[in-house]
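Technical note accompanying the year-one report. For the benefit of new consortium partners, we illustrate the data format agreed upon in the data management plan: each record pairs a sequence with a structure-token string. No post-processing was applied to the example shown here.
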Amino acid sequence: MALQRLDNAAARRLFLDRHALLELPAGPAKGADLLALIQRLGFVQLDSINTVARAHDMILYARRPAYRAKHLKQLYERDRGLFEHWTHDAAVIPMAFYPQWHLRFQRDTEMLRKRWRNWRRDGFEARFDAVLQHVRDHGAVSSSDVGKDEKKGSGGWWDWHPSKTALEYLWRSGALTVVGRSGFQKQYDLTERVIEEHLRPGTQPVDAEATVHWLCSAALERLGFATSGELAAFWDTATPAEAKVWCAEQLRLGELEEIEVAQADGRLRKVFACPGTAEAAAELGPPPGRMRVLSPFDPALRDRKRAERLFGFHYRIEVFTPAEKRQYGYYVFPLLEGARLVGRIDMKADRDAGVLRVTALWPEREVKWSPARTRRLEAELERVARFAGLDSVSFADGWLR
């Protein structure tokens, strides 16, 4: 029996819809409305780089232009609608999902002890009791509040002193909770003082099978279609083997079906989807033609290989690439127009002058950069500049490459 087939245009529309990019960027962007958006995405990755605005703020702004950074801070730090932990990287996650992280706490407890013992972290385990007592006595602390007499190693910024390592370990394993950030530095407090009791791990062992079921189901809901490996990678807690078993069982039960999705190059890829997904995708309308600047860490681009297969857009961030070896720039933003990724732009906020300075823009191959497209770009950059607290936009000579 032939598998149902999703053409590339429909696959893009479905993927953009699941990432809240198919509709016009509009709507309320604080409180319950902001929380609903983050629940729809699953999580929002945090990142400290601030060439224009921080990644998490750019992610939310691209979908809700009324969003401002203070709205996320209030939802996270005051309202406790979110908690911070790891997916594939540090992220803010809806508090309602906290019970699904019990398995992550358990697995990080075991994994990090082994990994960090061999990562120039000698002595961090001996600091657990002292660090917990310090937090108990003083309330929320940062890494600069503990281990003041301890020496860092010589391995760079990541080579923490033992008490800093203990803080991170106790957070990753669930004993501590990050309650906010000050100057992007994490503030840690006792989980029992922050997380409501009914959400915290109980006395019973973690039900790994039930958690894997939630993780895979929730990932598929947010991706639309995926391989078992992509489902495992979404939250990065279930193993690829667990996701593969889950897919096989759901397929047997009729809760999943296999379909073929056409990639940007025309090749077909077999994936899993919920029954009726292909029909629902065919009914989705076109995306708005407005151009949007996306963060390099946008959920739609997190899986670089998937973005390349679906959109034909090859993207790698070059922050850690020596300047002379960069193909584009230090921190280059992808540009989404309709259902196409049409280019990438190198720009930076000159905060002293109040100017968003555009260094270069590279259209994608086969994208004609017309005067109308330039006008759409200029309109979007004016909006981004206002969001970043800047007064104007400036284009360098020869900016269109």
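Partners are asked to follow this layout when depositing records. The two ends are 49 Å apart (CA to CA).
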